[in-house]
Amino acid sequence: MAKYEDLEGKIVLITGGSGDLGRASVLEFGKQKCRVYFTYNSSKDSADELVASAEESGFEAFPIRCNISDKEQVNALVNDIVEKEGKIDVLVNNAGIYKDNLFTSMTDEEFEQVIQTNLYGTFYCTKSVVDVMYRNRCGAIVNVSSIAGVTNSFGQANYSAAKGAVVSFSRTLAAELAPKNIRVNTVAPGLIDSSMVKRIPRNIMKQTLSGIPVKRLGKPEEIAKAIAFLASEDSSYVVGQTLIADGGLIMR
């Protein structure tokens, strides 16, 4: 495990902490000796399991229930952490949902819900945390997009729109915040071994894997390590970039 000494003791907020990538990220930052807060919405059992796993790994993780598509809940979340810790050093905007459908069959609700959570949720969390980082004149924000946000993704017009917007949002935000010593970057994972990917039929998955140069799915832990790198001072000159971690899937 790469050890980033500058992360030790940092206050980290990870949204969507009880999902596959969120869980891996919580454990990664915990191993870096950060104080880690994470959000969950409806999956309390998964959140409790993650807290237990963190304790087994020798650190404490702090779960907070929050629907990130609700601005008032997000503001209350950030205020609660700041009241306890006095600051937030790192924000990982990871929470997201998907409601896949062919565009001609996609409902307004399917489109709006994905945009509301994946894009507006990122905006609400970032806006609230940046107000805190501004006061301290330092911070790191890592937004989780997807290769669906930088290339086509059949049946995911809503998801692609949201994730593509996150990439553009991050680059503009990076330009605005860099003079304040707040760095913003994005990670765009490819196909990761997760509950989302497990829904893909076996025959389609076999075909998909044949198109990935490394011939395998990514691991949540691999993406979490990339996120930790972008949050650390080892990437202090990396600003406004999108790190594509997809096993080479879209490089061609």
UniProtKB/TrEMBL annotation:
InterPro entries: KR_dom, NAD(P)-bd_dom_sf, Sc_DH/Rdtase_CS, SDR, SDR_fam. SMART domains: PKS_KR. GO terms for biological process: monocarboxylic acid metabolic process. Residues 10-195 form the Ketoreductase domain. It comes from the Bacteria. Transmembrane segments: none annotated. GO terms for molecular function: oxidoreductase activity. It holds the Pfam family adh_short_C2. Keywords: Oxidoreductase. Belongs to the short-chain dehydrogenases/reductases (SDR) family. This is Putative fatty acyl chain reductase.
